[in-house]
Amino acid sequence: MHTSQRAAAMRSSTIRDLLRLADRPDVISLAGGLPDPDGFPVEEMAAIAADLLADVASASPALQYSSTEGLEPLRAWIAERHTATTGRPTGPDDVLITTGSQQGLDLLGRVLGDPGDVVAAESPGYLGALQALRAAGLDIVGIDVDRDGLRVKELADRLARGLRPRIVYTVPTFQNPTGTTLPDVRRRALAALADEHGFVVIEDSPYAALRFRGEVVAPVAAHSDRVVSLGTFSKTLAPGLRLGWIVGPPEVIGAAVRAKQAVDLHTAGLSQHVALRLVEQRDWYDRHVARLADRYGERAAALRAALVDRLGHRLELTDPDGGMFLWATPRPDSAPIDARALLPLAIKAGTTFVPGDAFAAGDHDLLRGALRLSFATAPPERLRTAVDRLAAAIDQLDGRPRPRISRGPLSQVK
């Protein structure tokens, strides 16, 4: 059966393909950015859902068709948080509840640009954003990321030479895939460039709440009204709720509402009601998120220490202050690594990662040796075992004998 040219141009997600491996009990996954399921507030959500569904009067609002914009009290809660972090007065009408922040990316790609318009995006950058923006027919231009995030000076130089993006996309806090955080001085510079050149910044903040050390940095949205913000409950409550949001000016929110009406009418009402009940519990959400951040901080430290111990002579590593990821690249004084060739060896050894070139918005070869490693889903002892297995796979790639490591059930893997 014939499909459209747009469908034919769509690329499969390396990360989504790799997630199938995360279900194998013999593989310790460092690949997908999955939240720790032990952090899901299952008991609280079960109690709330049971209460909502106890009778027709309480069940009907949660199960009935609802407004496209989303529950007003939930939008008000998000608006209050946005006001507190940016210092810019924000109300419920400035918020649209989306089916995950991924839908927010899709909607913004539709309403902020026309096919053929240019988006300047981080490279390496979030693969899901690159997919969504390309699906809208937008042309992606990569701007390099260093240890302080998006290289805003490079963007400024490109603008001076004639680059005219409609959108600049960034994950400034605990960036996916590198884990880096954009310093305040670069955030202010990016906001100033938006004001000067008239582009819109999409500031995607799925991980900002998961800070386990360091000082909070004000969002880019604190410094310009040409910023549209994305957020999500996927990393702090549960991704299965499929709840995200867009915060932006009325013309953007209005256009996104109309686009969303054509896609799914509205975001799932039951999920919104459950989330609202959770965040309405005084201080519960903040305590819950703080516990998650502490857990991820312990795991980030364990993974990084194991990598330094076993592979410090081969890999340079970022040192994130929050989020779910760190980024590994071959040391310039060591042998190169082909991450794509390494991946099947790592899977056989009993671990996974995402090759860095999957996140390229520009030249894939520049990221050929990089690995994105997630510390979110495994406890410290399993992370250390995963690093042993990764080291064994790198030794095999180099042609050296593999050290003896604990394989457990992997003796059955072919």
Q: Could you name the ranges where pLDDT drops below 50 across 5 or more consecutive residues?
A: 402-414
Known CATH architecture of the largest domain: 3-Layer(aba) Sandwich
Helix content: 40-55%
Please name the CATH topology of the largest domain: Aspartate Aminotransferase, domain 2
Tally of contiguous helical segments: 14
The count of domains is 2
How much of the sequence lies in strands comes to: 5-15%
Radius of gyration: 22 Å
Put the structure in a nutshell:
This protein is of the alpha/beta class and 414 residues long. The chain has 14 helices and 14 strands. The protein has two domains: 5-40 and 286-412, Aspartate Aminotransferase, domain 1 (Alpha-Beta Complex); 42-284, Type I PLP-dependent aspartate aminotransferase-like (Major domain) (Aspartate Aminotransferase, domain 2).
How would you describe the overall organization of this protein?
- The protein is of the alpha/beta class and 414 residues long.
- The protein is globular and about 65 Å long.
- α13 crosses α14.
- Helices cover 42% and strands 14% of the residues.
- The chain folds into 2 domains: 5-40 and 286-412, Aspartate Aminotransferase, domain 1 (Alpha-Beta Complex); 42-284, 3-Layer(aba) Sandwich (Aspartate Aminotransferase, domain 2), CATH 3.40.640.10.
- It has helices spanning 5-9, 14-19, 42-52, 56-63, 72-86, 100-112, 127-135, 152-160, 184-197, 250-261, 269-280, 284-311, 339-349, 380-398, and strands spanning 28-29, 95-98, 118-123, 139-146, 149-150, 167-170, 200-204, 227-232, 244-247, 315-317, 325-330, 351-352, 354-355, 371-374.
- It is built from 14 helices and 14 strands.
